[in-house]
Amino acid sequence: MININTANAQAGQLSSYASQLRNAKNQLTNYKSSLSNNWKSQEVAYITRAIDQVIAQIDNAMKQLNSISTDVKSTAATIKREDDAAAAAARAARAKQQRIQTAQTNYNRAVNECDALYKQRDELQKTLSKSMSASKRANYMKQWDELMKKIQAAEKNRTNCYNALVAARR
Fold first, then answer.
1. From the first residue on, what is the mean pLDDT of each consecutive set of 10 residues in the chain (170 residues)?
2. Which of 93, 89, 103 shows the shortest CA–CA distance to 163?
3. CB of 137 closer than 8 Å to CB of 90
4. Residue 2: what are its φ and ψ, rounded to 5°?
5. How far is the C-alpha of 144 from the C-alpha of 159, rounded, in Å?
6. Nearest to residue 116, comparing CAs of 145, 142, 143, 155?
7. Degrees, nearest 5: CA angle 102-106-108
8. CA 93/CA 87 separation, integer angstroms
9. Distance from CA of residue 92 to its chain's centroid?
């Protein structure tokens, strides 16, 4: 992972070097002007031409330093955006996996609850198939009605949990 602050600091250092070269160029330009104004001889033409060549080299070096500085900043920013996007995608994947896991757990609980209620229903059905007094049968029928309401609510919950699991997997 790239440290964008370090990259920007290095790019800033390159810009600083370009600035130092700009100062040196300005000093050379001033020296050349002073030389031309204050010294009249054949050698001045050679010296000023040499100074112009050095200034051209300085200009080229400044352009390269500034270009590299811009490239370093741009590349660092691009890499950081890519790293941030990858991190965001990883977080989203973890969050999705957590949603799926939670939905799966809820669905499993709902299925287990239905199974337990079905077992109670089967036991109660066996009991009701035996002969008994009318008052006992009425009591068991009341339990049956309550159990059927619980089963209906549990099945609705199981369906909702299943739908939530399907949605989490999308």
1. 86 96 97 93 94 98 97 94 95 97 98 98 95 95 97 98 96
2. 103
3. no
4. -85, 140
5. 22
6. 155
7. 115
8. 10
9. 8
Rounded-to-integer distance, Cα 53 and Cα 32, Å: 12
**DSSP secondary structure of 96-157:** HHHHHHHHHHHHHHHHHHHHHHHHHHHHHHHHHTS---HHHHHHHHHHHHHHHHHHHHHHHH
- The DSSP output letter for 3 is -
CA angle (19 as vertex; 16, 22 as ends), nearest 5: 160
Q: Do residues 35 and 48 touch, judged by C-beta distance below 8 A?
A: yes
Amino acid at 61: A
| Alpha carbons 74 and 77: distance in angstroms, whole number | 5
* Calculated CA dihedral for residues 11, 14, 18, 19, nearest 10 degrees: 70
Rounded to an integer, what distance in angstroms lies between the CA atom of residue 154 and that of residue 80? 49
Distance in angstroms (rounded) separating the CA atoms of residues 26 and 22? 6
Which residue type occupies 159?
A: T
The amino acid at 153? A
Residue 159, token pair as written in the block: 């369906």
